[in-house]
Design goal:
Low-confidence stretches: none
Strand content: 25-35%
Distance between the termini: 35 Å
Number of strands: 14
Number of helices: 10
Strand order of the largest sheet: 1-4-3-2-5-6
């Protein structure tokens, strides 16, 4: 897949199948849309194209919008997941004044037709494009029925609940990682670099890998302790992860991400890792003493080992 951060100056292809959207998280609902786009393109022997945005539209419409810790999949991850579904071209366009005020007619004529030779448009059930969200499947069928086939993809549901980025975000914030993972179609993960901490975990008998996120826009799950595993150098290391402010030890003002890895003693400082979260064990809490904290960590470790053994990835 080739990806760009601006539209081409000259026509890119003669014919294409296109879908448009933010696609934050590239969850199972998004996968339905993207897979249909790829399917139609392969049937016709033409290119599949995704038009997405390098910033969330909310950042334009709401001046108080703070992108920090707001996205399920920042750019690097979104590119990875969209590519995995077989898309040929991805355009990550800034959502700015020009994009926000571009009429649907101009979007269709000057971009989709002139630059990409659109023959088919695939949209999710609530997707729109153009100024005031005028562009839709109905809009295309009314004005371009003889030139373009437009498809609306039905919602994806889990237990009668519509799968959406906002719903998944809420589950992650609540710490309901199992439900979020099911809607994503994969384990929610945090990517970053292992850095030095204050070594408090080592002093307690539970050394941890402290992870600094590679992208500040990545959504951090609700504070608490999680069953997890760390992917590094082609290996998956089971463990237990604390996301929080360590109220018993330091009561930090910032949120730290630290993972105790089972049966693993290698030096991994400064290495790039991916931490996958499987389920939440408990909320973070302040303990009355260090022995009480150590006892609880021991229980957390035993629980996590048991859960990981059940899914055959215990080390």
């Amino acid at each position: 897949m080739k990806y760009f951060y601006s539209f081409p100056e000259i026509p890119l292809v003669e014919q294409s199948v296109i879908t448009i959207g933010m696609f934050d998280g590239v969850h199972l609902g998004h996968a339905k849309v993207l897979s249909e786009c790829v399917h139609i393109a392969k049937q016709k022997g033409i290119c599949s194209i995704v038009i997405s945005f390098s910033n969330h539209p909310a950042s334009y419409f709401n001046q108080k919008y703070d992108s920090k810790n707001s996205l399920l999949s920042p750019d690097k991850e979104k590119i990875q997941w969209i590519e995995s579904l077989g898309i040929d071209y991805l355009f990550m366009i800034p959502f700015d004044h020009n994009m926000a005020h571009l009429p649907a007619e101009s979007f269709m004529e000057d971009i989709l037709r002139a630059k990409f030779g659109i023959s088919d448009l695939v949209l999710g059930y609530d997707n729109r494009f153009g100024y005031q969200r005028k562009g839709s499947v109905e809009f295309v069928n009314e004005h371009y029925a003889n030139q373009i086939h437009a498809y609306s993809i039905d919602v994806a549901k889990l237990d009668d609940e519509i799968i959406s980025s906002s719903v998944i975000k809420e589950y992650i914030i609540q710490g309901n990682i199992k439900k979020a993972n099911t809607m994503l179609g994969r384990n929610y993960s945090l990517k970053g670099k292992v850095i030095h901490g204050n070594h408090k975990g080592r002093e307690l008998g539970f050394p941890t890998a402290n992870i600094e996120l590679e992208d500040a826009d990545k959504l951090i799950p609700g504070l608490g302790v999680y069953v997890s595993y760390l992917k590094i150098d082609g290996k998956c290391i089971g463990g237990v992860t604390n996301i929080g402010k360590r109220p018993t030890l330091t009561n930090d003002t910032y949120v730290s991400i630290e993972s105790h890895l089972f049966d693993f003693q290698e030096d991994i400082y400064e290495k790039e890792v991916e931490l996958e979260l499987l389920e939440k064990i408990r909320d973070e809490k302040k303990f009355n003493s260090l022995p009480e904290l150590i006892e609880q960590i021991s229980q957390d470790v035993n629980w996590a080992r048991t859960q990981l053994t059940k899914i055959h990835i215990a080390t």
